TrEMBL record, chain B:
Residues 620-883 form the GCVT N-terminal domain. Keywords: Oxidoreductase. PANTHER family: AMINOMETHYLTRANSFERASE, AMINOMETHYLTRANSFERASE, MITOCHONDRIAL. This is Sarcosine oxidase subunit alpha.
Length: 416, 1002
């Protein structure tokens, strides 16, 4: 059952003490078999399921989650959405994603609070200036709206920034006006609600412990809630991709490391855009709640603890205090980490696998949140047609064998 | 004395010293030793804040760092500090304090309208509305929400204060200076272990002093004084007050946050100190947190934790009310009734949810004639901006039947105590539900483990779940002995013995009354700051947000600045009830650092301004600065981009420098180039692996250009290698790549080829290196005298060492400009003298320095690549026309280069580009084919990698990478450069100037 969301519905709810609201997504018992099983009820897995139903009419779908829905990186990131990537393959899928985000609240009837407040990436060396000039030109040809802005415009849009730091003066910025942020949890919940409304099964606390196959083709999975059969399997589990791949009998070129983030205590609005400073390694935005949301660096070693090294927090905070001096007297409220899956070229994998009927979507590394709708769209297309479409095609596993990398670190920026 | 200041009590205040401060511009007075909250309470100001969502009026609920309500802004401008907990900040003379999150005033806040609309604004309401019309979210709804949200005002400008970071090493760090912490420290120190004791507040002893514990026959206060004195007498013990252990990281790396109290006393102490401590064992003796009770109106100013009410009376001599009702489910709150009674404050009643027979504490209360309402609950609190009374009902019922009404102006509530498990949990320790004690306590079987697999956090006292004083002390003593033994310093000392009245069992109470309906529940607050009510958590459960993490995120329970210290346990108990599940299986959210919010300035500390990152300067830096250098940061270096003369534009300066070098002679400070010495019997073999070319065959005295690839086969650095002697090579790298190349070499030597006999040293900063280039370069050098630098003695790509004038120099005959060129290396200390000598010697030929930009122009004129311009991590040596195919032997990148995509004939390769008009192509421009990709992007087939105006040729020149470029000489490419304009450029040879290389010989 689904109740349409609107202001009127809230008023109606108030009259009954809000006792009439149904579950956001149902909690059914697993069936014996589904046409498609998606492993991982994070944003990417749920979006995959959603677009399987919406675009391809496949609703005999179960989404399996070992813990709680949206509990991985979907709920741990700094919510930045942008598509100002250098390489064509990247900008295509990220721009598709950004465009889908623009209408997502209305499409899902669930306010994911996509806020196109604009993202700027500061250029603080001549090298970075050249890199962003190049990116702006590439973006123009890719149909992504970006431009290089002057330090004066940076200051106007970000009053709290210090342009002439003693170390790395701000020489300009790559500005994407239609980029922004969204409420991360709501993206997962909104997709889950829509999937559930289409009759798909979302099975939480259902950990996959094995992959079954028959004559080189997937036939089902074993889980902590019993064996479940399927015709096609989509593995969408980010940091745990290596383990799932092992169960399915193949290896992946990914490493899992901890990436950290932190927020300050909430303050009244002081910065309305997202700023990324890659020379000094730090990025910053202010949530609607008023918290300054800060992204840190990734650890250099493999780790599944969801706790990172303190020195990365220090490095990030130093960089940001230097760039935004008023931060100095704010306080860090929370810090946390997520396990991100990094590939060699820091670009994702959307690919068929050596196991027939089994598809994998992983390797989003430090930049997965922004890609959720586009990734789900492309993954659904691949699973439905049993072949990658144009968005997914460049991200196949074979690229590592061929050396056909999609390397975004080549731009002055870092890959998140 | 003010109306609420008691005649007696106040062990922490100095009644003889007044302190003046302002609150919302009203001049007020407190006493030395007051917290901001106690001073305001003494002045009768119970209303101290507004809540986050509904802007409800709020007073303090605690007397410590768990405070969610009494948040204030201190100071203004660059020293402004938002969201300060009034309950834990010491009052100081002249303090300027503002209330927050209200407009126009604290007493009258327009934002309160949200409270009136609370029924339509339940948890998560924003997910269900603000959907249409679509542009309204960005332009209307979100700006409105943002303005209403946030708490304090952000500071403005550069923080004028200083922060410090210190390192310390300890066998045992004790968090908490209450009696448990002190007992643990004393026990731990007996065997000589290095012990650091950290106390968050400015005084020792914690709750026991207020609660009247008797230790070894003495009142707690006397025992504390004696124990602190004894600890101070031990050389192996360090005691610090105003310092909280704020984070426990893996392997015993802990952070402690100190607020030095001597700031402003003549010596400029830092505002804060962040201690980074390596601890063998951490004893978490940081106590327990009292839980509020969820009854209707439990957020009205004047409803406070029972422990806080007695803290204010005993520690600060402040009566929070004149007629107080105590409401509880446990015996501890009876101490509040007794403390108030002793301070002369009327206790109207004790309301106890339990039906059981009274214990010793209750008997004392009854003996004072204070009525006790057994089995009762507060049905509701009356009052809006202050308590005016309470109505009582049976706890076991639904509250429909009011049994009594009591007039009062404050309510002291206690829902029991939760061990502060935060420090146990930061690094992964798990907790277990103790149903008898109605609390989560550390699970000894699942502690955080260190590098050796042993548990390194030892909870002690109340933090371990030993809530009763005598038990807490015994537990802490054992914890101290254990920590000492585990760190190799076993010792012995008798355990202190404490006495306290017996306490009856707690009755878990999660809503009051137990069967309350929606009318009451919608007024029961769980998270005070974020305005999360019992009905909100129930709504979350109803909507399927059953996981404790979902409920937290959906309702924002526990996400306020108190990090859920007061709300977490109550909230998850309500959630468990709504799910029909047990508390144990519902579980907790993750307890993450920091314990209390940590100032970002303290994390950044001294790494600000000039100390933010090292600035590397060459020996000739001062000369450059004095001669108009416009700086360019390259890595941590600053290099002169150009030497701009008065009245000159930077572009004109670059042109002048290029022409002068081409026409006569120029000098460049090349000291920043990486200079890595590689030596050893296996050095040649090693360099053959590193470079795509062969270095082992290089003759002594000769130089060779080399390119390094990543394992994937992409160029990552280049430079000239000189063979110094049989076993020594000097490798030049790019300026920005020196550290990476050095690290790369060490990585291979240490991890893969550890048995190769090679030694690598980075000499970059040992040497000053000056490039002298131009037709007159040799003449300038020869004027210095000494070495024979003639073409016969020192041919191109050779080097020689000797005396050049007064200098011991190594001279390399290399050229990056295409002109006759030398690079002279001398010890760094000699650099400025050599530079001066060259400038003087070259004066007659019009010598001028040139900067990095002129260097770039000249190398582009010659078609030389620049790592970082022509390469970007995706470019192979073959793409750049640097052959590698001939090398049979293995090298790093060889296998990568064999992959199909890297051998694809369609790859983009290096060419020159010339516009048809002679104008300069924009940097980074792409050429288009006219077609489109599968994803509807315009198809490209080349890009500009370097583009300059060539003053030598008088027109624009560019290098670029173009699909099958060298096979397409003469073709014209189209470069879109704006919405409606494009430029056309012809593919030409990348060497624009002196293709025969005749100028190399001058």
């Amino acid at each position: 059952m689904r109740m349409s969301h609107s202001a009127l519905a809230l008023v109606r709810g108030a009259l009954t003490g809000h006792t009439g609201w149904p579950r956001t997504w149902d909690s059914p018992l697993p069936r014996d078999r589904y046409k498609v099983i998606v492993v991982g009820a994070g944003g990417h897995g749920l979006a995959t399921a959603y677009y399987l139903g919406r675009n391809h009419g496949i609703t005999d779908v179960a989404v399996l989650e070992k813990g709680w829905l949206g509990g991985g990186n979907t709920g741990r990131n700094t919510t930045i959405i942008r598509s100002n990537y250098l390489q064509d393959a990247s900008s295509a899928i990220y721009e598709k994603s950004r465009a889908l985000y623009e209408g997502l609240s209305q499409e899902l009837n669930y306010n994911v609070m996509f806020s196109p407040r604009g993202v700027m990436m500061l250029a603080q060396t001549e090298h970075e200036v050249r890199g962003y000039l190049r990116t702006a030109r590439a973006n123009y040809l890719q149909g992504v709206e970006t431009r290089f802005i002057t330090p004066e415009e940076v200051q106007k849009r970000v009053p709290i920034i210090r342009l002439d730091g003693p170390r790395y003066p701000v020489l300009g910025a790559l500005w994407q006006p239609r980029a922004g942020t969204a409420r991360h949890d709501a993206v997962a919940w909104g997709y889950a609600r829509a999937c559930s409304a289409m009759g798909m099964h979302i099975l939480e606390n259902c950990e996959v412990t094995g992959v079954r196959s028959d004559a080189g083709r997937v036939s089902g999975v074993e889980t902590t809630r019993g064996a479940i059969g399927c015709e096609r399997l989509a593995i969408v589990v980010a940091g745990h991709s290596g383990r799932l791949a092992q169960m399915a009998g193949f290896r992946l070129p990914v490493e899992s490391v901890t990436l950290q983030a932190l927020v300050s205590e909430p303050v009244k609005p002081c910065m309305d855009v997202v700023v990324m400073a890659n020379t000094v390694h730090g990025y910053l935005s202010q949530s609607d709640k008023g918290e300054m949301v800060i992204g840190g660096g990734a650890d250099g070693f493999n780790n599944f603890t969801q706790r990172g090294s303190w020195h990365h927090i220090e490095e990030t905070v130093r960089a940001l205090v230097e760039t935004f001096p008023m931060l100095s007297r704010l306080k860090m409220l929370r810090q946390w980490g997520g396990v991100v899956d990094m590939t060699g070229d820091r670009s994702p994998i959307l690919s068929p696998t050596p196991l027939g009927g089994c598809y994998i979507n992983c390797g989003w590394g430090t930049g997965g949140f922004k890609a959720i709708p586009g990734s789900g769209w492309a993954m659904a297309e691949m699973v439905a047609n049993e072949a990658p479409g144009p968005l997914a095609a460049p991200f196949g596993l074979e690229r590592f064998r061929e050396g056909r990398f999609i390397d975004e670190s080549v731009a002055a920026g870092v890959a998140h | 004395m003010s109306a609420h200041r008691l005649e007696t009590g106040g062990r922490l205040i100095d009644r003889t010293r007044r302190v003046r401060f302002t609150f919302d511009d009203a001049p007020l007075r407190g006493q030395a030793g007051d917290t901001l909250a106690s001073a305001l309470l003494a002045e009768g100001r119970m209303l101290q804040g507004r809540s986050f969502k509904y802007h409800r009026p709020r007073g303090p609920v605690t007397a410590d760092s768990a405070e969610p309500n009494a948040l204030m802004g201190l100071d203004t401008g660059a020293r402004a500090e938002p969201n300060v907990r009034a309950t834990s900040v010491q009052l100081s003379e002249g303090m300027v304090v503002h209330s927050q999150n209200r407009w126009p005033s604290l007493a009258f806040d327009v934002g309160r309208i949200a409270d009136r609309l609370a029924r339509v604004l339940p948890a998560g309401f924003y997910y269900k509305t603000f959907l249409w019309p679509r542009p309204f979210w960005k332009h209307v709804y979100e700006p409105l929400i943002r303005r209403a949200a946030g708490l304090g005002r952000a500071p403005e400008g550069v923080d004028p204060d200083r922060y410090e970071q210190l390192h310390a090493f300890a066998d045992v760090v004790v968090a908490g200076g209450g009696v448990a912490g002190l007992a643990a420290a004393w026990a731990a120190a007996q065997g000589g272990a290095r012990v650091i004791v950290l106390e968050e507040t400015g005084h020792w002893g914690g709750r026991a002093v207020v609660d009247g514990l008797v230790i070894d026959g003495h009142p707690a206060e006397a025992w504390v004084t004696a124990t602190v004195a004894a600890l101070e007498g031990l050389a192996n013990v360090t005691l610090r007050t105003n310092t909280s252990l704020t984070a426990v990281h893996d392997h015993g790396y802990v952070l402690a946050d100190e607020w030095p109290q001597d700031a402003g006393a003549g010596i400029a102490a830092p505002r804060q100190r962040l201690w980074r401590i390596r601890a063998g064992r951490v004893i978490a003796a940081n106590g327990a947190i009292e839980r509020p009770l969820a009854f209707a109106g439990n957020d009205v100013p004047g409803v406070m934790l029972a422990s806080a009410v007695r803290d204010y009376a005993v520690n600060y001599g402040v009566a929070v009310g004149r007629r107080v009702v105590v409401v509880t489910n446990n015996d501890d709150a009876y101490r509040t009734a007794l403390a108030l009674r002793e301070a002369g404050v009327e206790v109207a009643a004790v309301v106890d949810a339990r039906d059981t027979l009274p214990g010793p504490l209750a008997q004392q209360v009854r003996a004072h004639g204070i009525p006790i309402h057994d089995g009762s609950a507060i049905e509701a609190v009356q009052g809006d901006i202050g308590v005016t009374g309470v109505t009582l009902c049976r706890h076991s019922g639904n509250g429909a039947c009011v049994s009594a009404q009591i007039a009062c102006d404050a309510v002291a509530m206690s829902g029991g105590w939760s061990p502060a498990v935060h420090l146990w949990s930061h690094a992964g320790g798990k907790v277990v539900w103790d149903a008898d004690g109605a609390m989560f306590r550390p699970d000894p079987a699942q502690g955080p483990t260190g590098h050796d697999g042993a548990v390194f956090v030892i909870p002690a006292g109340a933090a371990a779940g030993a809530l009763w004083g005598p038990q807490a002390l015994a537990d802490a003593h054992a914890a101290g002995l254990r920590a000492a033994a585990e760190t190799g310093h076993p010792g012995h000392t008798p355990a202190p013995v404490a006495e306290a009245p017996e306490e009856r069992a707690i009755l878990p109470v999660w809503t009051m009354p137990e069967g309350a309906g929606p009318r009451l529940k919608s007024r029961m607050f769980l998270d005070f700051q974020n305005d999360v009510k019992v009905t909100d958590v129930e709504l979350a459960a109803r909507e399927g947000f059953e996981s404790v993490e979902h409920a937290k995120r959906y309702t924002t329970l526990g996400m306020a600045t108190d990090q859920g210290k007061l709300s977490n346990i109550n909230g998850l108990a309500v959630l468990a009830a709504a799910r029909g599940a047990g508390i144990a299986e519902t579980g907790t959210t993750t307890f993450r650092p920091p314990w209390t919010p940590l100032t970002l300035g303290a994390i950044a500390a001294e790494a600000r301004g000039e100390l933010f990152q090292a600035v590397r300067e060459t020996p000739m830096h001062a000369w450059h600065a004095a001669h108009g250098a416009r700086w360019e940061p390259v890595g941590q270096w600053r290099r002169p981009h150009a030497y701009v003369r008065p009245g000159e534009t930077p572009a004109k300066a670059v042109n002048r420098e290029v022409l002068n070098t081409r026409q006569t002679v120029g000098v460049l400070d090349a000291s920043t180039l990486g200079k890595i010495l590689v030596r050893g019997p296996d050095a040649g073999r090693f360099l053959d692996m590193l470079y795509t070319g062969t270095m082992s065959t290089l003759a002594v005295g000769r130089c060779r250009y080399g390119v390094m690839c990543t394992e994937n086969g992409f160029v990552f650095d280049d430079g000239v290698v000189a063979r110094i002697d049989a076993t020594t090579w000097l490798c030049h790298t790019t300026t920005g790549g020196a550290e990476a190349v050095h690290g790369w070499m060490e990585d291979w030597l240490q991890c893969e080829w550890w048995d190769w006999k090679v030694h690598v040293i980075d000499l970059t900063e040992q040497l000053a290196q000056i490039a002298v280039a131009g037709p007159n370069a040799r003449r300038v050098l020869q004027k210095l005298g000494g070495m024979d630098l003639s073409a016969d003695a020192l041919g191109h790509m050779r080097w020689a060492a000797g005396r050049l004038g007064d200098f011991d120099a190594r001279v390399l005959r290399v050229s990056f400009s295409g002109e006759l060129g030398f690079e002279v290396a001398v010890p760094a200390s000699q650099g400025p003298a050599l530079w001066d000598r060259l400038m003087a010697a070259g004066a007659e030929w019009g010598i001028m320095p040139y900067g990095t930009e002129a260097l770039h122009v000249m190398r582009a004129e010659k078609g030389f690549i620049m790592v970082g311009d022509e390469t970007d991590g995706t470019v192979t040596p073959g793409d750049l026309g640097l052959p590698t195919g001939a090398k049979k032997a293995d090298f790093l990148g060889k296998r990568g280069l064999e992959r199909s995509h890297l051998r694809d004939p369609e790859r983009w390769r290096l060419v020159g580009l010339e516009t048809l008009t002679g104008s300069v192509l924009p940097h980074g421009a792409y050429s288009v084919t006219g077609g489109y990709t599968d994803t509807y992007q315009r198809e490209t087939d080349g890009r500009v990698t370097s583009s300059y105006y060539s003053p030598t040729l008088g027109r624009g020149i560019a290098l670029g990478l173009v699909r099958r470029g060298p096979e397409r000489m003469g073709e014209v490419l189209t470069f879109p450069v704006g919405a409606a304009s494009q430029m056309k450029a012809r593919i030409v040879d990348p060497v624009f100037f002196d293709p025969q290389g005749g100028r190399l010989d001058g």
